[in-house]
Amino acid sequence: MLAARPAEPEWFEALLRAAIHDPSPSANRMFVEPMLAAYGRRRVQRSLIERVEHGTSRQRAGAADAWYWARVLTAPDDHYTALPARPDYGPCPDLAIGWRHAALRAFVADADLGARRSILPSLPLAVAAYPAELHPMVDEAIRIARTSPDEYLRHRVDHQVNGCDSYG
């Protein structure tokens, strides 16, 4: 549909909800990619940050899953729009920093396992990636993941802390 005509403004929220509530962290790409093409990376990423800051646990998990695609897709796919690439399709370093801070706070504050499992891969776990006031929170996130009864969180935190970068 987006290839046939420009996206309507009211479609944004519907696509965002679909991306966040899609149960598959891979299949949600089919909602994120057309959002990026039609509305720009800045608007999409800002909305995902808002959901991780103020959403429910399920919305936080879905926003973290959608963040992956909102970050890594580098060019619009011709399947989604016949329009030229939006000028705001490029990287948004300020929003990447905003995501890291919001996701770190959400990981520490939200005890929901699903939210934590989805958020952790997008968190750099080096204090150098954060301002000084968040350094104790980085240590707390590492402690939470390392002492979790969840094997995935324990494995993932060791993977990230021992030199394998996360993409946040």
Briefly note the structural class of the backbone: mainly alpha
Topology order in helix (H) and strand (E) letters: HHHHHHHH
Please name the CATH topology: Leucine-rich Repeat Variant
Distance between the termini: 31 Å
Mean pLDDT across residues: 87
**Largest sheet report:** none
Low-confidence stretches: none
Q: Architecture, according to CATH?
A: Alpha Horseshoe
**Which band does the percent of strand residues land in?**
under 5%
Tell how many strands the DSSP assignment holds.
0
Number of self-contained structural domains: 1
- CATH first level: Mainly Alpha
Radius of gyration: 16 Å
Query: Which outline best applies?
Result: globular
Helicity, as a percent range = 55-70%
Helical stretch count?
A: 8
Description:
- The chain is mostly helical.
- It has one domain (11-161): Alpha Horseshoe (Leucine-rich Repeat Variant).
- 59% of the residues lie in helices and 0% in strands.
- The radius of gyration is 16 Å and the shape is globular.
- The model has no long low-confidence stretch (mean pLDDT 87).
Write out key terms for the chains shown.
168 residues; mainly alpha; Leucine-rich Repeat Variant; 8 helices; 59% helix
Question: How is the secondary structure organized here?
Answer:
Blueprint: H1 11-21, H2 29-39, H3 41-54, H4 57-72, H5 93-109, H6 113-119, H7 135-146, H8 151-161
